[in-house]
Amino acid sequence: MRSVALALLSLPLLAFSVSAAEPTLPVDFEHAGVTAAWSAYGDRLTFGSGQTLALLDDGCDLSKPEWSNSDGDIPKVLVTYDAVDGDDDPKHEGRGYHGTTIGVPSSINFGGKQGVAFNDQLAVVRSLECCHCNVSDGVPLARALQWVIENHEQYRITTINLAPVDDQAHAEPVATDIDDKLVKLHELGIWVSAPTGNHNFTDGISWPASQPHCFAIGAVVPGQDVVHQDRHAKVVLAVPGSATSSSNALVCGAAIILREAISQTGYDWRPHGPTLPDAMLALMQETGVPVHDPGTGLTFRRLDLKAALDRIYAGN
């Protein structure tokens, strides 16, 4: 069966108003072209309807109102799984805390606040004990990725926020159990990205962002084109955020919106890359704002979602 991640999604043409709600991160969203995209394409896009984002982190308190309720027409959390214990209860255990909030920038739709792709649904997958991890956590994290591989069609999972960081500076990949899973997910056309870390390292980035077939997302200061936090040549895109976990969450929402726009318009993405995620990243890079970083001597591309959507609709 052809992967739902590669197939054209059967998305409704009904658009959703964003005027009655506020962005959950107003400065970050304006800087990244999200609010401009909402305004320009609110009559054409649903901003996530029909797609599910898998949050792979250290668990989630599902009793929080933003996850147990939604201002949308369908439940925000579609499915849950605990890859550590092998059950369906993703509650925090041990030192977990981060997974309750990591879905806010991408997906929240509650209390008058909206994330980037506010009409998406979530697959909440507890994948390790704490988001501040080490490479030995590759064992349960591989189980979490395998769960997505086996269930992505049933739950319409198109995007993975691979949230953990090991807080080390890896200039090269580190062989772990997740690597073959990342290859398979890439083949399936599922977007997988991870934050680079938050220690101002310039000689490497955190695992698992350091791995092949995982897009490493860095950060610029919200409202300023100044690169900060961990950055290295491995970084493929810089996104406004006070921490790279927030930057990565934002770009996961942007990937969902780009996928919807490509599906809706029939845009030929193949000249941009061998897979749909590669092509979407290339579009973000090509339309992004160049930002030079004196600390590394590198120039990164900063996300402009509105510009990427303009390219798709102009190309169509």
What integer value in Å does the Rg equal? Answer: 18 Å
Alpha-beta content class: alpha/beta
Share of helix among residues? 25-40%
What string, H for helix and E for strand, traces the elements in order?
A: EHHEHEHEEEHEHEEEEHHEEH
Count of individual beta strands: 13
As for the number of domains, it is 1
Provide the residue-averaged pLDDT. 94
Query: At the first level of CATH, what is the class?
Result: Alpha Beta
The total count of helices amounts to 9
Largest sheet: 8 strands, mixed
CATH homologous superfamily label? Peptidase S8/S53 domain
Distance between the termini: 28 Å
Q: The CATH topology is what?
A: Rossmann fold
Please give the CATH architecture. Answer: 3-Layer(aba) Sandwich
Return residue spans where pLDDT drops below 50 for at least 5 consecutive residues. Answer: 1-19
What this model shows, in words?
55% of the residues are buried. The longest helix has 22 residues, at 244-265. The model is unreliable at 1-19 (pLDDT under 50). The strands form three sheets. Strands 2, 3, 6, 7, 8, 9, 10 and 11 form an eight-stranded mixed sheet that branches. Strands 1-5-4 form a three-stranded mixed sheet. Strands 12-13 form a two-stranded antiparallel sheet. It has a single domain (28-315), classed as 3-Layer(aba) Sandwich (Rossmann fold). The two termini are 28 Å apart. The chain has helices spanning 26-31, 34-41, 65-68, 104-107, 138-155, 179-188, 244-265, 276-287, 305-315, and strands at residues 22-23, 52-57, 77-82, 109-110, 113-114, 121-126, 157-162, 191-195, 215-220, 227-228, 235-240, 289-293, 298-302. The protein has 316 residues and is α/β, with parallel strands linked by helices. Helix 5 (138-155) packs parallel to helix 6. It contains nine helices and 13 strands.
